[in-house]
Amino acid sequence: MAETARFLPITVEDYLAGELHSDVRHEYIDGQVYAMVGASTAHNIITLNLAAELRAYLRGTPCRVFMTDMKLRIRLQNKECFYYPDIQVCCDPSDRETYYRTRPRLIVEVSSPHTEREDRSSKFYAYRQIDSLQEYVLIAQDNPRVEVYRRQDNWGVLDIYEGDCEVRLEALDLALPMALIYEAVEFESTEHGKLSLDD
Q1: 141: which residues sit within 8 A by CB, 6+ positions away?
Q2: Which DSSP category does 37 fall into?
Q3: Which of 21, 108, 134, 177 is the most exposed place for a label (fewest CB within 10 A)?
Q4: Tens place of pLDDT per residue across the chain (199 aa)
Q5: What is the rounded CA–CA span in Å between residue 132 and residue 95?
Q6: Is the model's pTM score more than 0.85?
């Protein structure tokens, strides 16, 4: 999130109506809206790579893959929140609102130095309250590193994948090579210039 777009609380209905006409996406946290920052080249490539692989794998199943423009609605006690996860996979046939989802099985955030803290704290806390969620995945964009948190481990244990390996997504019974997730992504290196996972 970047800066507060409005200071007076607004209703969920006004927020949803405003998003239909806004050129900038906003997340909604308990009556406040926050403008979303733009994404890097690496962020876009990683998100597209993973969404394409998930879409192909889940073809013919009830599961649907949504990228950055689909909102996620969460009710936290007396608070209403709307986020824009980088990827969410939803398999519940009753979860069919037009502009948001409420029951994802898998959520993925591609983290940057600017978003990592929130991805690990407030968003992770909010996402864990969704009873349908089985896995939460954090993907680094500046080096090949993927972290997977699972409900079956009570969210307290994570699997860390680094370098040339396969990432296991148990919620979907899928293993993906790290090279596919990071395909065409170039990492900065002070000694050798640009590096990719294939080098």
Answers
A1: 40, 42, 43, 46, 110, 111, 112, 185
A2: P
A3: 21
A4: 445 444 678 999 999 999 999 989 999 999 999 988 778 999 999 999 999 999 999 999 999 999 999 999 999 888 999 999 999 999 999 999 999 999 999 999 999 888 899 999 999 999 999 999 999 999 999 999 999 999 999 999 899 999 899 999 999 999 999 999 999 999 876 454 455 666 5
A5: 11
A6: yes
